[in-house]
Amino acid sequence: MSAPSETLRIDRWLFYCRFFKTRSLATAAVSGGHVKLNGERTTPGSRIKCGDQIDLIRERLPFSLQVTGIPNRRGPAAEARNCYLEDEETVYRRDLQAKALRQDRMLMPKTEGRPDKHTRRKIRSRNRS
Question: Domains in the chain and their CATH numbers?
Answer without folding.
Answer: 8-128 (3.10.290.10)
